[in-house]
Write a structure and sequence with these properties.
heterodimer; A: about 350 residues; alpha/beta; Rossmann fold; 2 domains; 9-stranded mixed β-sheet; two-stranded antiparallel sheet; 15 helices; 11 strands; globular; B: about 425 residues; alpha+beta; Alpha-Beta Plaits; 8-stranded mixed β-sheet; 10 helices; about 45% helix; flat
């Protein structure tokens, strides 16, 4: 991290000593001023309820922020699409890129696809705050597809995540009265079977699904841990590295794996689960274009009908490229990999897909 | 009080002072005297002609209706009826006034009758004046944006820090005004200079109540302040200014299709392809690697190079919606202004219509003299504190501007009528 120019720090502390504190993490005066404003609003609001003095509270908040403590943990929430999701230490904070991808994914569904099942079953693996499943449940009914009901289950290995996701679901059900959230539940389970698992105390997913009596699922969404150990040490920001749960960022795996493979540990397992439960569409978040290509190659080995890579910004379709027979949409970092079975190609308006990819590869 | 055996001197002095007529005024601006009201404003002949033409049209329409009823004609006749009524009232008032004035000016009038006539004159004059005002009001077409909510943008102008402080004062003034007049107002954007709370570099206030644009559109322009700033050490009076823009605010989605957001011919239409959306992103890896807090959104309308930047909310989606709303408002206002400018050029050959655009100073707030003068209506009110707190005097001055605006629009109308 480059050193902040002392002139900048001096200017900031002259304006407001607290600004200089926040600047240590923000590195930029305008965003520091904004964060300070949000923190002050929060402190004032908080003290209206508790009848305390907001100034000491604001100082404590700014001091924590100066050490890199995530703003979202301090304020207790983050905006994800148009939902406000509660955040707590120990659970990964939702990222705006994920929201973009989920929104775009929902928009792909064809309202005129009459082979969509009347009851769409969705699995959200490694759910964390529950943000992906909550946003999906919120947006999907607006797409006006022939689907009558949604059944969604969010899965996480961490008990605090499952608890927080459930809390988020209740809060949104109370506030916004999103009726589709009623058929949404969260369970604690390990994606890996007991013999491969690092945490033997948590029951495995397939076992839990059997116990639920629901082994068939249509859509699998996931934002699994995908950072390799080297990436964690080198590329993550201080606030992420020091304060967010490593469990949600770096896959736990046996030693002796190559660095990139270590980051990819979850993807083959998720694709395998998708096979077992008869999944027809899979959306996976990835770190960058390299990982996206590796995951897409894996998916092709699992015989998926179509595979697509989405980048961060998906506003226009003008910048579509092909890598081999895989279509790459948007600009920015590679962010998600979409795979679908033949049965689902009309759901996502990708009927003519196999032909075009065939032409591109030829 | 006079039966009491003893009165304190101070009370005695105060009583005599109250009895002793008006206090002397030392200010340069003269208060309106009674004499100025006795000469009534004449009605413009072109306007009267138009009113008579409308009246004639109404008569023919009513005849048509008597023969065979048709809802469309009935509706049109109903719209014209207000003008006809106003014209009738005006004619009655005008007749009374002319009769009285001929009586007064006639040397052969009986002195007793003359006294009666001059007693009646003021009331007849006011009746004529109000009839004239109603008639002109009914003739002037309604502003196309009048029924919309509005956005008030405030930016400091010349004068450095003092201008920023004054801009913050204006923001407070409009917030208080909205609160006092039951207008729902919400702060969309407030950027402080150097993090000092009382100095703003830009503020946008959204007044959500429908019709707010009609109430507040007269506020657009440069507001000038003359006072000893808080930042001044030697006690000198400074003159600085702040610019206020009032834009109509359109609903986010046009459900009824009335505005034609989708219709390329409409003022409100913006081709999404012509707008570049910039979402501020941290450089380097995204996703799980960083947790950025930036939610700023910038929209650039490429053909006009209009830039809208919103970063107030933590929610990027909310910022984006706000930015679109603001962009739509600015573009629509620009288009309307351009059209008005064109019309104005056409009319300049007929009469020199003075229009105060947003670049001209419209109002002066003078702290030392405790006065606020509007340069368009020429009205001066006193009591800075009351006005800055959105008090009744502010409404008074705003009302005078509304009347002035209506008069200008009427002049435009006359210009177009006589230019035909």
């Amino acid at each position: 991290m480059p050193r902040l120019p002392s002139r900048l720090v001096a200017q900031a502390s002259q304006r407001n000593p607290l600004l200089a504190l926040v600047l240590r993490t923000c590195r930029d005066p305008t965003s520091a001023a904004l964060e300070l404003k949000w923190l002050r609003d929060y402190a004032v609001q908080h003290c209206v309820h508790t009848r305390g003095n907001w100034r000491p509270l604001l100082f404590r908040l700014c001091a924590a922020r100066s050490r890199g403590y995530p703003l979202q943990y301090l304020l207790g929430s983050e905006f994800f699409g148009d939902l406000e999701i509660k955040c707590k230490p120990g659970v990964l904070i939702p990222r705006s890129e994920t929201a973009t991808a989920v929104t775009h994914f929902v928009n792909q569904f064809n309202p005129a696809a009459f082979n969509l099942p009347p009851r769409l079953r969705v699995l959200d693996l490694c759910t964390g705050t529950g943000c992906i499943s909550l946003l999906f449940a919120h947006l999907f009914p607006k797409q006006r597809t022939p689907v009558k009901a949604l059944q969604i289950v969010g899965v996480d290995i961490a008990p605090e995540a499952v608890q927080l996701a459930e809390e988020n679901r209740r809060a949104l059900l109370d506030q916004a009265a999103i009726s589709s959230l009623q058929n949404l539940r969260y369970i604690q389970a390990d994606l890996f079977p007991p013999e491969e698992s690092q945490q033997t105390s948590v029951p495995s997913l397939i076992g839990r699904l059997e116990a639920l009596g629901q082994l068939e699922w249509d859509v699998i969404l996931s934002n699994p841990p995908y950072i390799s150990p080297n990436g964690f040490n080198r590329d993550t920001s201080r606030s992420v590295r020091n304060f967010e749960p490593k469990l949600a960022l770096v896959p736990m795996a046996a030693n002796g794996l190559a660095d990139a493979d270590h980051g990819d540990v979850f993807y083959p397992r998720i694709l395998e689960i998708a096979d077992q439960v008869g999944g027809k569409v899979v959306l996976l978040e990835v770190a960058d274009l390299d990982q996206a290509e590796r995951v897409a190659a894996m998916a092709l080995r699992y015989d998926w009908e179509g595979v697509e890579i989405w980048r961060d910004e998906l506003f226009s379709h003008d910048d579509t490229k092909y890598i081999g027979r895989i279509r790459v949409l948007g600009t920015g970092h590679g962010r998600s990999v979409l795979c679908w079975r033949k049965a689902a190609s009309s759901w996502l308006r990708r009927d003519g897909e196999s032909n075009t990819t065939g032409v591109a590869s030829g | 009080m006079f039966y009491t055996p003893w009165i304190c001197t101070r009370c005695l002095v105060r009583t005599t002072r109250r009895l002793g007529g008006r206090q002397l005024r030392w200010h340069s601006s003269a208060a309106p005297t009674l004499a100025s009201t006795s000469t009534s404003k004449p009605i413009y002949p072109a306007l009267l002609e138009r009113a008579r033409a409308i009246s004639k049209e109404h008569a023919s329409l009513s005849q048509q209706l008597a023969e065979n009823f048709d809802t469309k004609t009935a509706k049109k006749a109903g719209e014209l009826a207000t003008v006809v009524d106003a014209l009738k009232q005006w004619e009655a008032a005008n007749d009374a006034y002319t009769e009285l004035s001929t009586l007064i000016h006639d040397s052969k009038t009986d002195p007793e009758l003359l006294a009666l006539a001059s007693d009646d004159l003021p009331s007849t004059t006011t009746a004529l004046e109000s009839a004239t005002a109603t008639l002109t009001q009914t003739l002037v077409p309604k502003h196309p944006f009048a029924s919309f909510p509005c956005l008030i943008e405030i930016r400091p102008g010349a004068g450095g820090g003092e201008a920023s402080i004054f801009a913050a004062d204006l923001l407070r003034m409009y917030t208080a005004y909205c609160a006092a007049h039951n207008l729902r107002a919400q702060l969309v954007k407030r950027e402080t200079a150097d993090g000092v709370e009382d100095m703003i570099t830009e503020a946008i206030l959204e007044v959500e109540t429908p019709g707010a644009y009609a109430v507040l559109r007269g506020e657009a322009g440069v507001h000038r302040v003359q006072r000893v700033p808080a930042t001044e050490t030697k006690g000198r009076t400074h003159t600085s200014s702040a610019a206020v823009m009032v834009l109509p605010s359109f609903p986010a989605n046009d459900e009824a299709g009335e505005l034609g957001f989708e219709d390329p011919g409409s003022d409100y239409y913006i081709d999404p392809k012509e707008v570049r959306l910039d979402v501020m992103r941290a450089s380097g890896a995204g996703g799980q690697h960083v947790n950025k807090t930036e939610s700023a959104v910038r929209l650039v309308h490429l053909p006009t190079n209009t830039v809208v930047f919103i970063q107030e909310s933590r929610s990027q989606l909310r910022n984006r919606e706000q930015a679109w709303q603001l962009l739509r408002a600015r573009i629509a206002a620009q288009r309307r202004e351009a059209r008005e400018e064109e019309l104005l050029k056409m009319r300049r050959g007929v009469v020199g219509v003075a229009r105060i655009g947003r670049g001209d100073k419209i109002r002066t707030y003078n702290w030392q003299q405790q006065r606020i003068t509007d340069h368009r209506s020429g009205l001066t009110v006193h009591g800075i504190e009351g006005v800055m707190a959105g008090g009744p005097n502010l409404e008074k001055i705003m009302q005078s501007v509304r009347v002035w605006l209506a008069e200008r629009e009427m002049e435009d109308l006359i210009a177009t009528e006589s230019g035909k």
